[in-house]
Design a protein that fits this description.
Layout lengths: L3 H5 L9 E7 L10 E4 L10 E4 L2 E4 L1 H10 L2 E3 L7 E5 L4 E3 L10 E7 L24 H5 L10 E2 L2 E2 H17 L1
Antiparallel strand pairs: 1-6, 1-8, 2-5, 2-7, 3-4, 9-10
Length: about 170
């Protein structure tokens, strides 16, 4: 059990003005260890966390208290479903002991004024983003990873050809 702000706090973020969005890639069920939350637990504020390796876990006594105060919700999700949650929400997932995968994508967001003090991977907003037209992405042309000639055993040209064929097939309809 942990809160995302439980470890972001140690990176120097001054406020819990953050949220996460979990997007299910595969179906998430109790059987394959879907995300579990203690609904409303974000109202407790930040709970002390201890690092074990790279994993942060909330203080066990506070978890037990939260389990008494807040309902446990299993977040069963279909592929493509998204769950937004506060950075102080206590959450965990069980081990996947099923034959079914449980992949998800987690995107994390913070307020513009919540600049970390010592997190080199998240430098803040020193320079505003320049808004460009949607067409700017296509105008840059196809790019590949530096030095990468293949992805999942296929050449970059294979993917480029598929992209061009898809674009042609779409434009001909």
């Amino acid at each position: 059990w942990h809160q995302d702000y439980g470890y972001w706090y140690h990176y120097g973020y001054p406020y819990p003005d953050m949220l996460s969005c979990l997007i299910a890639v595969d179906r998430a069920t109790k059987d394959n260890g879907c995300l579990q939350v203690l609904a409303g637990s974000h109202k407790m504020g930040r709970v002390e966390h201890k690092l074990t390796g790279e994993q942060a876990g909330a203080a066990p006594d506070r978890i037990e208290l939260a389990k008494e105060l807040f309902p446990l919700v299993h977040c069963e999700m279909q592929p493509g479903a998204a769950l937004f949650f506060h950075s102080n929400l206590l959450h965990a997932s069980a081990q996947n002991k099923s034959a079914n995968p449980r992949w998800s994508l987690i995107c994390c967001y913070t307020a513009k004024n919540n600049i970390p003090k010592h997190d080199p991977n998240h430098p803040g907003y020193e320079h505003p983003f320049e808004k460009v037209a949607d067409s700017a992405i296509r105008a840059t042309g196809k790019r590949t990873l530096a030095g990468s000639a293949a992805f999942l055993g296929k050449s970059v040209e294979t993917y480029a050809a598929k992209d061009d064929n898809a674009a042609t097939a779409t434009s001909e309809k």
